[in-house]
Write a structure and sequence with these properties.
- The complex is a heterodimer of chains A (about 120) and B (about 280).
- Chain A is mostly helical and about 120 residues long.
- Chain A has two domains: about 60 residues, Arc Repressor Mutant, subunit A (Orthogonal Bundle), CATH 1.10.10; about 45 residues.
- Helices cover about 60% and strands about 5% of the residues of chain A.
- Chain A has a two-stranded antiparallel ribbon.
- Chain B folds into two domains: about 210 residues, Rossmann fold, CATH 3.40.50.300; about 60 residues, no CATH class.
- Helix content of chain B is about 35%, strand content about 25%.
- Chain B is built from eleven helices and 14 strands.
- In chain B, the strands form three sheets. A six-stranded mixed sheet of chain B has the order 6-7-8-3-9-10, with helices on both faces.
- In chain B, a hairpin with a 4-residue loop joins strand 1 and strand 2.
- The radius of gyration of chain B is 21 Å and the shape is elongated.
- Chain B starts with a strand and ends with a helix.
- Classes of the chains: A mainly alpha (about 120), B alpha/beta (about 280).
- Chains A and B meet through helix 2 and helix 3 of A and helix 6, helix 7 and helix 8 of B.
């Protein structure tokens, strides 16, 4: 498991952590039932506060990615396949939004992007 | 017991300083940093908690109990690190250890020896021969060797090099792996706190400025920078602290939206560090 936290980023640390764990779950690197590090253990490893780690886990729990069993720890929750697909699509959508924004900054036209995408689809 | 440490309306008056009804509380399982400039009242507050000074008013509860009525029982469960050396200079570490150990019901020699070797301290050294850093290590070893539930430290990291300060942070993390234990420490080295602290209590001139979770604090403050032409008297008033030069200004705010609305892209907005918050709030 790999989590890297940047102290100089504008993104809050709890969000960096929850995003990275979410990513690992969506990519299947973390599977249903996998035990996550304890909140206090992770705080020590990453040298951040317990509250920050707790908040990251709370977010993940709220979104249904993990489950916490009192006294046992936090596990990766079983994911509804359909929901999972939807979440992955949302990630792609977010990335595309970024592409669209950057393109508009450069005054690229839709057709140019489409052309780029076409080539990349064949190459990658 | 909901709070491991509770300070309510605490008052203490000296000839030229007043601790003005301060209140804050700490839950078990967390670390609270106590910050403020020199002379703000940090050491006084800690001495009052430890009943080394007599309070003029208010209430202090440790482990849910009155700190004077249950003083003996409470102190048995507190690991205390002073900012000064309170040990007999002519004794060796071992001799001093024997005296201190007898005060604590849960003294743990094995633990103490472990810290002696981790901190590279020779038990046969006379205390007077120890450097400032070594004395601090010795105090820490004592504080951590009787299974205390609350660690209270007055400026434990001042005078220590960054390498050892990191080492201390690691030890503190080890302590709070147990979610019933808490740590309360004063410091003016805010970078240590920026990592480890769950809560920050900021005291200035005998008054509490805030006592809040660190994440909330860092989210609510920001530094705004811009050119001199943007400032007028009404804008100046909106800053909690402001530094102006010929080339521009830098100011602290807790109302970021206001500046975004009024100035948009014309100002640069950066995250405020605890040090920024402390310096700008004190200086104004």
């Amino acid at each position: 498991m790999r989590i890297i936290v940047s102290n100089s980023s504008n993104e809050p640390i709890y969000e960096q952590i929850s995003k990275q764990i979410k990513g690992m779950i969506l990519k299947g690197e973390l599977k249903e039932g996998d035990l996550l590090p304890s909140i206090r253990g992770l705080a020590k490893e990453l040298q951040i506060s317990v509250i920050t780690t707790k908040r990251a886990y709370d977010e993940l729990e709220k979104e249904g990615f993990i489950q916490t069993v009192q006294g046992k720890g936090s596990y990766v929750a079983g994911q509804n396949k359909e929901l999972m697909r939807e979440k992955k699509l949302k990630i792609i959508e977010d990335k595309l939004i970024e592409v669209v924004r950057e393109s508009k900054l450069l005054d690229l036209k839709y057709e140019e992007i489409e052309e780029m995408l076409k080539i990349l689809f064949q190459e990658v | 017991m909901k709070y491991i440490l509770e300070v309510n309306q605490l008052k203490k008056e000296f000839k030229d300083f007043k601790l003005d009804s301060i209140s804050f509380k700490l839950e078990p399982g967390y670390i609270m940093g106590f910050i403020g400039p020199n002379g703000a009242g940090k050491s006084t507050t800690i001495k009052l908690i430890m009943n080394l000074l007599k309070k003029d008013g208010g209430e202090i509860k440790v482990f849910g109990k009155d700190h004077i009525k249950h003083e003996k029982e409470i102190k048995d469960r507190i690991g205390f690190v002073y900012d000064q050396n309170y040990y007999y200079e002519d004794l060796t570490i071992n001799q001093m250890r024997n005296i201190v150990a007898s005060f604590y019901s849960k003294w743990d020699d094995k633990q103490f020896n472990h810290y002696m070797s981790q901190f590279n301290l020779n038990p046969k050294s006379k205390i007077r021969t120890l450097s400032k850093g070594m004395k601090m290590k010795f105090s820490l070893a004592i504080a951590l060797s009787h299974h205390a539930d609350l660690i209270i430290m007055d400026e434990p990291t001042s005078g220590l090099d960054p390498v050892f300060r990191r080492e201390i942070l690691d030890i503190l993390y080890d302590i709070i792996q147990d979610e019933n234990k808490s740590i309360f420490f004063s410091t003016h080295i805010t970078t240590d706190l920026e990592k480890i602290a769950d809560y920050i209590t900021f005291i200035n001139d005998g008054k509490i400025v805030f006592s809040q979770s660190k994440d909330k604090i860092l989210e609510s403050y920001a530094i705004v920078k811009g050119g001199p032409e943007l400032l007028d008297d009404s804008t100046r008033k909106k800053f909690l602290g402001l530094r102006e030069t010929k080339f521009g200004f830098e100011g602290l705010t807790d109302d970021l939206d206001l500046f975004k609305r009024n100035f948009g892209d014309r100002v640069l907005i950066e995250r405020a560090s605890l040090e920024d918050i402390m310096v700008y709030s004190v200086r104004g």
